[in-house]
Amino acid sequence: MHLLSTLFLVIQCLHALANVEKTIFTAPEHVPIPRDAAIDNLLLYSLNPARLKIRTYLNASFPSDDKPHGEESWALLEGLRPGQRYELRVCWLATQPTVFRLDTYTMAESFETSGLISSLSTYSYSRRDALAESEVNELVASKYVPSAGADNTSLLFLRIQAAADYFSLNKTLMEIVPPVHVDLILDPYLLNVFPRSLVPTAIYIAIIAFFSWFLADRSNGVERASARKKLL
Ligand SMILES: *[C@@H]1O[C@H](CO)[C@@H](O)[C@H](O)[C@H]1NC(C)=O
Ligand SMILES: *[C@@H]1O[C@H](CO)[C@@H](O)[C@H](O)[C@H]1NC(C)=O
Ligand SMILES: *[C@@H]1O[C@H](CO)[C@@H](O)[C@H](O)[C@H]1NC(C)=O
C-alpha cells in the first residue's frame, strides 16, 4: 500500500513538472455516424487509436469579452471504445505561458448547441483559409479509418481554449500572441484506472522502490545481526 501511494505521488509530480492540462472522460455509446463528407470537411485533426499524438500549433489570445478563455480550436477524438476511460492531454513549453481549457462534446451536443456550432464552423473556416502544406499532410495522415465490418466505436469533439498568460514590455507580444506549439495526446486508461502511457514509468519506479525497500531491509538485518553478536 505504501509502495502504491509513493508511486502515485511520484507520477503526480512528473505531471506537475511539465506544462500539462488534461481532461478525463469516458467514451460515449456508439451512435451511427453519417460517414459522408460532412465531418471530413471540417478539416479537424483526428486523434484515434492509430494516431494517439499530434504535434501542432494552436492560436491563442488574451482573454476578451467575447472570448473569455481565449482562442478556440477543435479536434476529433475517434475510434473510441464505448465505456472506456481516456485522458486527453495538451503539453506545451514553459516559454509560452498559456492557460488551456479542454472540453469534450458528443456530435449531437456540438451540432445542436448554438455557441458550439458557431465556434466550430468559425474554426473550420479559418483553417480552410490558412492551412499550410505541412498541416494538410498531417491532416491526411491523422484521418481515422474505421476498421472494416461493424464499426462499434464512438466519437467526441474536443474544444481547446487557449488564453495567453503573460505580460511583456514588448508591445508586439502584447498585441499579437504567437501560436502555441503543443502536443495533443490521447491516452486510454489501462483497466480504466491508469493512463497507459505512464505504465513504463510506473514499472520503473516500482522496481526502484522495491530494490530500495529490499536493500533497506537487508541492512536492517545486518544491524540486527551485529547487535545480537554484541549481546552475546
Ligand atoms: C467491436 O466489434 C468487434 C468485431 O465485432 C469486436 O471484436 C470488438 O470487441 C467490439 N468492440 C467493442 C468495444 O464492443
Ligand atoms: C490563427 O491565427 C492566424 C493569424 O491571426 C490566422 O491567419 C489563422 O486563420 C488562425 N487560424 C485559425 C485556425 O483560427
Ligand atoms: C518583440 O517580440 C517580437 C516577437 O517575438 C520580436 O520579433 C521583436 O524583436 C521584439 N521586439 C523587441 C523590441 O524586443
Automatic annotation (TrEMBL):
It holds the Pfam family Pga1. GO terms for biological process: GPI anchor biosynthetic process. GO terms for cellular component: endoplasmic reticulum membrane; mannosyltransferase complex. The chain crosses the membrane at residues 198-216. The keyword Cytoplasm does not apply. It comes from the Eukaryota. InterPro entries: GPI_ManTrfase_II_coact_Pga1 (IPR019433). This is Uncharacterized protein.
